[in-house]
Design brief:
Blueprint (H helix, E strand, L loop, with lengths): L10 E9 L1 H14 L12 E9 L4 H8 L4 E9 L6 E9 L2 E9 L1 H8 L5 H4 L3 H12 L3 E15 L4 E13 L13 E2 L4 E7 L5 H6 L12 H6 L3
Antiparallel strand pairs: 1-5, 1-9, 2-3, 2-6, 3-4, 4-5, 6-7, 7-8, 7-9
Length: 232
């Protein structure tokens, strides 16, 4: 993807649950037998995800999530692995129970400018998502809020375009300091937990639905951003 492209809109189902370490062991053993891993995974089958979430001074994104507002959105910067060389600005949104994501590539230099408070380039790029972020920065005082970092193991299943992920070793720090310098900023680990995510298009195949069942799963949705905000 070049610096000037924006991904097309696509709405998908997205289920998230917090599971205990024992459930993680059971699911991992089962999923590894049934489905191939994401090709981007490292030798251990996982890869690191580091995100910097934005929010308003009134914690709009957090409050809307906790209140279950059906139409909501949040912005984040994200990179994978140990290097921020490939960065994305992402906007996640939820509409009528379905989730979508728009994204645009940022260079490392642009991300540094953004975190330093320089935002004019967002309009100069002429991309709708970047222009929208500029308006939110100026209009709602959207600002970098919390770093969320974890290790992800992902599995794929072509029917239904299914993606099952297990996000482990969740850790966080407030603010944006050090976000672009991995290893140089303190991350506070959360209690031992795994976040299970199941994403699919029009239908969830029975094979996947049965594969992700565990007897003690906690009911309700789970947000890694909301979990990490408890440690601000």
């Amino acid at each position: 993807m070049t610096a000037g492209t924006t991904e097309p809109l696509r709405l998908r189902h997205e289920l998230k649950h917090q599971i205990a370490p024992q459930e993680d062991l059971v699911l991992t053993h089962r999923l590894r037998k049934l489905f191939p891993r994401d090709s981007h995974a490292g030798p251990d089958g996982s890869y690191r995800v580091t995100s910097l979430y934005f929010d308003t001074p009134y914690d709009t994104a957090l409050r809307e999530k906790l209140d279950g507002v059906d139409r909501r959105e949040k912005f984040r910067l994200r990179y994978y692995g140990a290097s921020p060389a490939f960065l994305k600005l992402e906007k996640k949104y939820k509409v009528n129970g379905l989730c979508g994501k728009r994204s645009a590539r940022l260079t490392l230099q642009e991300a540094e400018r953004l975190l330093a408070g320089e935002d004019a380039f967002l309009l100069e790029r002429g991309e709708p998502l970047l222009s929208e972020l500029y308006q939110k920065l100026r209009g709602t005082l959207l600002r970098p809020r919390t770093v969320v970092c974890y290790d992800r193991e992902a599995f794929l299943y072509a029917p239904g375009n299914v993606r099952v992920t297990l996000d482990r070793d969740l850790r966080t720090c407030g603010g944006s300091a050090g976000f672009l310098s991995p290893g140089s900023f303190p991350l506070k680990p959360l209690d031992a937990l795994t976040v299970l995510e199941v994403k699919y298009d029009a239908f969830l195949p029975d094979l996947v639905r049965l594969a992700v069942q565990t007897p003690d799963r906690r009911a309700g949705a789970c947000s890694k951003y909301a979990l990490c905000r408890r440690f601000d």
